[in-house]
Amino acid sequence: MFSSRSLSSPSTQTLLINQVIAAIIRNRPFNTNVKPSTPQPIWTVQTVTQILRSIPKFLFQSPRSIGIQNGFRHRTPLKQRNLEEEFHKARKGVLILGPFAHKDPEKVQLGVEKAIEFYHWVETHCGFTHNELTCKEMSLVLAKGGCKMKVLFEFLKKMSRKGLVTTSSITCLIKCLGEEGLVNEALATFYRMKQFHCKPDVYAYNTLILALCRVGNFKKAKFLLEQMELPGFRCPPDVFTYTIFISSYCRYGMETGCRKAIRRRIWEANHLFRLMLFKGFVPDVVTYNSLINGCCKTNRIERASELLDDMVKRGIAPNRITYNSFIRYYSVTNEADKAIEMLRRMQGMNDGVVACNSSYTPIIHALCEVGRVVEARDFLVELVEQGSIPREYTYKLVRDALESAGKIDLLDAEFCTRLEDGIKGRIRQVMKIKPLLQHESVS
């Protein structure tokens, strides 16, 4: 299976990675029958780590997630998963919703089995010595594959006897379990850290609190916070701990769609913010942005303005996210002049904050809605002159508004052609990426 070259050059290592991944995807055994005269391939930590990271990419992804943006972002509230329920649904052919939706259970099971086989094969047949990094990647594969926690815990126990399990690797595992919706499993991993000869730190607490808040389990998250606030506790909370609660209260309250729940969550966020100041913590720009965004989305513009003034007094420079919250609010309430004022205020800052599509688009839509089509055209031209390509809907909205007002001549033909070519080029680029990723996942 492997090339006879033993050089540790990047091209050789890439070829070695591709050969192993191909064997995993096609479910072929790893060939160890290397001739005595042929040098053995050189296995490095980077090579083994890259192979383990590639398994979820090729075998755990659902076809619907191919071509999506990188990063962890859920547009709907993250649901807590139940592995036993998913197993029974998969056997009955019932659709599974949530992070595991539309995935092929057979491919996922194959990926987990081949990852375990490769992990032991490279150690027993190739003389490779695993370290903390490869152990962490292997545990992440087991977590993303949704295997039984008994298998994961036995693996961690075995590796902890070799001293390969650390607090940082367990923290990464808790984060992965939380992103997969396996919050109860993340909580169990946290309380088993002592069995793995690890002591939790503030980062482990914050990671677990974030996972609990994502699924709306504020009761257990608040219990952990109260535990951290005890006098003399070895892991006292920091600014990020309170920021997690404030942002989660604002986001989760609005996602419920219930007015009473929204009022309650926004009140709790403001109360926790004041308690944070009382205890001597200095909030950062992320804390302010989370609370300002929540206040703007719940029509508490006076409170949001107070927070903006407080930021400036404390010497914390507002960024684009801060001003975009105000711009969106004023645009929705048809106060286009105030939205433009916020845009100019942002552009007048000396910190290099540059407005983008998310800043101009709400203003352009608001101006078109109130009939100020000439100003909307001017802002569209200003956006393009800064090097950004507006959305197709925004461009058509301005064009149709000018045509209805009989002022279509204000849009230059050359400008329209350049803009339409840019929009089409962006569409072609996206359409090229999707077939490429689909071919990689199938091959």
From TrEMBL:
<comment type="similarity">
    <text>Belongs to the PPR family. P subfamily.</text>
</comment>
<dbReference type="Pfam" id="PF13041">
    <property type="entry name" value="PPR_2"/>
</dbReference>
<keyword id="KW-0677">Repeat</keyword>
<dbReference type="InterPro" id="IPR011990">
    <property type="entry name" value="TPR-like_helical_dom_sf"/>
</dbReference>
<dbReference type="InterPro" id="IPR051240">
    <property type="entry name" value="Mito_RNA-Proc/Resp"/>
</dbReference>
<dbReference type="Pfam" id="PF01535">
    <property type="entry name" value="PPR"/>
</dbReference>
<feature type="repeat" description="PPR">
    <location>
        <begin position="201"/>
        <end position="235"/>
    </location>
</feature>
<dbReference type="InterPro" id="IPR002885">
    <property type="entry name" value="PPR_rpt"/>
</dbReference>
<dbReference type="GO" id="GO:0003729">
    <property type="term" value="F:mRNA binding"/>
</dbReference>
<feature type="repeat" description="PPR">
    <location>
        <begin position="166"/>
        <end position="200"/>
    </location>
</feature>
<feature type="repeat" description="PPR">
    <location>
        <begin position="284"/>
        <end position="318"/>
    </location>
</feature>
<protein>
    <recommendedName>
        <fullName>Pentatricopeptide repeat-containing protein</fullName>
    </recommendedName>
</protein>
<feature type="repeat" description="PPR">
    <location>
        <begin position="356"/>
        <end position="390"/>
    </location>
</feature>
